[in-house]
Amino acid sequence: MAVHSAGILLYRLDGEGGVSAFVVHMGGPYWAKKDEGAWSIPKGELADGEDVLDAAKREFREELGVDPPEVDYAELGTFAYSSGKRVTVFVADGAGFEEGGFVFGEFEMEWPPRSGKTASFPEVDRAEWVPLARASELIVKGQRPALERLAELLRKQGG
């Protein structure tokens, strides 16, 4: 069965027609020296029977150590990666959400490989507001359609 994740895509308008997206740089040794294609929206896997929006909010909290903003969320869609993994993305205007005060969640893995030793790494190691065009270059390929859909919706709304 394909993995199903849920995440939150916050955006904000800059008042001059520009749009920024809130994205996170994936943590751990694999992503440490990568930039383009190494960013994501805050997201993670659903637990069995968990409401999808609740999962997205939980994952935001787990990855960043802060609650997602208390705003209205709309389901942007479910997007499939080439691997078969699916991510359901919720979008919201995050104009009042400021970066800072983050306590990044951690995961453990064998490191170095085949060493038998376990090391802890942050799930994400940076979180930033990035102009939407740049976010499209930075974010993992499977999430780029979500940014495209957001841009399309904002164009239709005149934003």
UniProtKB/TrEMBL annotation:
Keywords: Hydrolase. PROSITE patterns: NUDIX, NUDIX_BOX. One of its GO terms (molecular function) is bis(5'-nucleosyl)-tetraphosphatase (asymmetrical) activity. InterPro entries: NUDIX_hydrolase-like_dom_sf, NUDIX_hydrolase_CS, NUDIX_hydrolase_dom, Nudix_hydrolase_domain. Residues 1-152 form the Nudix hydrolase domain. It comes from the Bacteria. It comes from Microbacterium marinum. The keyword Glycoprotein does not apply. This is Putative NUDIX family NTP pyrophosphohydrolase. Pfam families: NUDIX (PF00293). The keyword Cytoplasm does not apply. Transmembrane segments: none annotated. SUPFAM superfamilies: Nudix. GO terms for biological process: AMP biosynthetic process; ATP biosynthetic process.
